[in-house]
């Protein structure tokens, strides 16, 4: 028999695991050319890295040279934090991606990169577990509803967080917390307000008062982007803390760092500070009724203002000072300014050199010296000599 290749890949669902930390893996049934069927588990980050490498291997088929010739399917990048909802909603896209992948020309669908990625690994047959942590939870894609990935069999188990301090609600839509309460997060909003449930109670809770059970949640936060991302202020806010900014509706700013508590580090001209993300909208993005309703809410508390926090992970949290944001941002601005001046100086130097060469007078041929009388008499003919003498 020839080289192994994949006949079909079927997405069965996903699994929620709790070791070494809470994460999600997708379950694939891979059918090979020798009629064998193997079950493999892959994280979405792994699948996306596989996808990027495949595009680099086949630049024509990926559309990097000409988009009209693209046949490799698209795959969205991972979100800055992946919860159960995004894992669940992505299933339809993944199922279509695998179907298209297997039906690509053999040079792609049967290449070693594809074959090796879907081969069975040791942790596929014997996943690493801890007897002290609860067993993985499986969510299968219904056989009669493969086009509707939102219909998942089994219970919808939400991510559990712990309250690090007491919180008194300020409106009917919020939920009060006591330090140590275990809540299930139904929805994570980048505004810093998370919709949670505790027994028979449900409501909005500030993300600053919650921490995951398996460790600090810095991994869910993006790294600072000192180049900045342009946003427009949709609601005015007056600074309360020294490191916050006061802005008016309509101001254009640059977002440097998106933090989970809903307070983003922004830059206005050369001034940096914190501002509620719920009052910002990405430049060029259309407004929606949901966003308008959120802006009517008050800004959530910041992590730095949570008093008497009983966090079990506070020692593991990394902190970036406001001065670091400001210094790095100024450094970025200065480097950009220096680069612009450098190119401008180079352009001016080239222009001046060309101009000088054009205006420089052209060299004239040298006039030869007049020969002396003795030299003429010595070299001339006898006839010429008689005429001179």
UniProtKB/TrEMBL annotation:
UniProt entry tagged with the keyword Phosphoprotein: yes
Occurrences of domain PX (ranges): 4-125
Record GO biological process: respiratory burst; superoxide anion generation
Molecular function per GO: phosphatidylinositol binding; superoxide-generating NADPH oxidase activator activity
Record-level GO cellular component terms: cytoplasm; NADPH oxidase complex
InterPro entries noted in UniProt: NADPH_Oxidase/PX-Domain, NCF1_C, NCF1_PBR/AIR, NCF1_SH3_1, NCF1_SH3_2, P47PHOX, PX_dom, PX_dom_sf
UniProt key word Transit peptide: no
Biased composition (Polar residues): 286-296
PANTHER family to which the protein is assigned, alphabetical: NEUTROPHIL CYTOSOL FACTOR 1-RELATED, SH3 MULTIPLE DOMAIN
Protein name: NCF1 factor
Species whose genome carries this gene: Jacana jacana (Wattled jacana)
Phylogenetic lineage: Eukaryota, Metazoa, Chordata, Craniata, Vertebrata
Gene, per the UniProt record: Ncf1
């Amino acid at each position: 028999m020839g080289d192994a290749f994949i006949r079909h890949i079927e997405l069965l669902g996903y699994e929620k695991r709790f070791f070494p930390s809470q994460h999600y893996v997708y379950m694939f049934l891979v059918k090979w050319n020798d009629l064998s069927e193997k079950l493999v588990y892959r994280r979405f980050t792994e699948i996306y890295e596989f996808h990027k490498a495949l595009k680099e291997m086949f630049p024509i088929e990926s559309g990097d040279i000409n988009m009209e010739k693209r046949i490799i399917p698209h795959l969205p990048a991972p979100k800055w934090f992946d919860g159960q909802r995004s894992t669940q909603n992505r299933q339809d896209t993944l199922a279509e991606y695998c179907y298209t992948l297997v039906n690509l020309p053999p040079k792609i669908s049967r290449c070693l990169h594809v074959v090796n990625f879907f081969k069975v690994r040791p942790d596929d047959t014997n996943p690493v577990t801890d007897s002290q942590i609860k067993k993985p939870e499986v969510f299968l894609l219904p056989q009669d509803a493969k086009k509707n990935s939102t219909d998942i069999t089994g219970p919808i188990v939400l991510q559990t967080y712990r309250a690090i301090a007491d919180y008194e609600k300020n409106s009917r839509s919020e939920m009060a917390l006591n330090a140590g309460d275990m809540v299930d997060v139904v929805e994570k909003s980048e505004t810093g307000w998370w919709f949670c449930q505790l027994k028979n109670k449900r409501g909005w809770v500030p993300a600053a008062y919650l921490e995951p059970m398996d460790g600090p949640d810095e991994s869910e936060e993006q790294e600072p982007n000192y180049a900045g991302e342009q946003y427009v202020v949709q609601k005015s806010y007056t600074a309360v803390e020294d490191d916050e900014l006061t802005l008016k509706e309509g101001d254009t700013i640059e977002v440097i760092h998106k933090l989970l508590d809903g307070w983003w580090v922004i830059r206005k001209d050369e001034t940096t500070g914190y501002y509620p993300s719920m009052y910002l909208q990405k430049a060029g993005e259309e407004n929606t009724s949901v966003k308008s309703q959120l802006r009517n809410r008050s800004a959530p508390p910041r992590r730095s203002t949570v008093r008497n926090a009983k966090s079990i992970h506070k020692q593991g949290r990394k902190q970036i000072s406001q001065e670091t944001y400001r210094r790095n941002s100024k450094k970025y601005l200065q480097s950009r300014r220096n680069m612009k001046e450098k190119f401008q100086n180079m352009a001016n130097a080239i222009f001046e050199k060309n101009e000088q060469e054009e205006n420089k007078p052209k060299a004239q041929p040298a006039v030869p010296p007049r020969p002396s009388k003795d030299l003429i008499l010595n070299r001339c003919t006898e006839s010429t000599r008689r005429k001179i003498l």
